[in-house]
């Protein structure tokens, strides 16, 4: 009946029936960002809406993940077996596929506040219904549009000794704050329905992410239909990405805090951080070759060059797989505690992780405990491992087994007994990683499932409103957040950066949305509020468009994500621009300093024309070596070709697929213009594989025995693309 919670069903259509019974046929459905969407329930509800036009379904979410299909016939042939291998056992989000094909019925609308980058750039429906919001405002905006149903995939707790509990696992980010607000709405008379969909393949996380199953109204539990998790394949890391990651790794402060985003630039940073920690001599060789400390003295103040002796603490809206690699390598190990006073004492070096009587003396001096000890003091001390877990407080005395100890810290005999019988060995309950959501490769999910209890306890998946800004939250106030997030380095990527210091990360100047603001603005703003913190925006210096190389450092642009007054640190493959507190002239020059040399003179002329740079200024020779050749030189300085690999953390593509992928990428670049397309087709028509060198690769593409004109042309194109890999055309290396 209505109001009854925690109803368990193994019938997805019965769950849909119950939702409609509770809230009616006007449904505004809130779904988690990314991985946590309950695919079985959502597909059933969407199908019901397609079958019943009286249902008005509005889906509000972000990052609806779909397996790639490919545009051209060659892309489809390449992706077909790959997609089947990675996604064949995973049910597809039916509404998302219909959105991408512009086939949504009139009674269904989908609004997202973050797209997979570029996925809906030319989808007019999604461009119209996009909701521009900071990640921290998503809960507010969900409530504003009248969300009355929330559904999420969860992990059951039985296998982890938590019967009756479920874990929000990959997506506590918004749900932890949505549930109480929806219950308030329900208490005020508006019907709501909260749906959980069990999936035993979802890794379990405790702490804030573990809640009672009865917090939901309906629980879909059908183990026979549990499916693998949607994975995001590892992206290749280019030499340019590696250098960007390298420069960023030099700005990490030992004992500090790290936030990093998804993608190849994040992977490059993690790889270089591991190099710095585990192979410091090789890392230093690249550092010295680039003369980083000479050209960019900021690193000596804000960063470091040695191994991470104290370690880092992760505080990131997205727990990318790189954080797990940092944990495995002993870098992500600085633990924080949920008490501001205790954390501040640790930060100041007044309390060490190893517990001693001096620990108690400091805590008493700071009035965090009393003497004689009281019951609440003992509970607090046990909570953080300062006292052993078996210690009890009875009759005003400490009891350890059959021993009774006085709790007077001024009594020498009592102190000796406390030290012998009561004190723990080291602080416990610390967290090395706070994350709001995660999505990544299958290998990442498997590693999360295989974490030991001790490792899992060091990760807290929690509310994005705790992580992404400094305002007070029920999981921690501003004082606690400031104490935990020392030396914060908030590292995010941008598409373009303007000479006056504005970042372009989410959209184009014609208004079309590429991805979304997400949490980038929050982290940039927080970096300006936290003492010792820095915001770092990373971007490749150039991009290719329609066969031309364009600069991503631009004079101006008609859209920005991060306003110029929040400018801080910008990194390209050519170095670091420290912009905080600098005059406009210095901002312009420092950005020109890290632009590709093919564009520096043009940018300088524009800056001088508008009076932002002294007209007598000339580009120093040391600035003018920002070329692809310089990148190759830096990558090879150690003589170890494997130091900066294209897939530092494994890959989902086979060797054959990597070769084919490079060939297809080359063909796509060569045919970006009409002239290039005609030239490529003409060359492809003459391409032959008479010796059968590419037989296995053609078979992988389903083109070993082509029939019909289309297949024969596709075969010739693939052969031509493969031949170009072996004998690429000479494009020159001009700076102009």
TrEMBL record:
Specify the superkingdom.
Bacteria
Q: Which UniProt keywords apply?
A: Hydrolase
Note whether Hydrolase occurs among the keywords.
Answer: yes
- Tell me the organism: Marinobacter guineae
Q: Which residues form the Acetyl-CoA hydrolase/transferase C-terminal domain?
A: 440-607
Would you tell me the protein name for this molecule?
Acetyl-CoA hydrolase
Enumerate the GO terms in the molecular function aspect.
Answer: acetate CoA-transferase activity; hydrolase activity
Q: Name one Pfam family in it.
A: AcetylCoA_hyd_C
Q: What is the lineage of its organism?
A: Bacteria, Pseudomonadati, Pseudomonadota, Gammaproteobacteria, Pseudomonadales
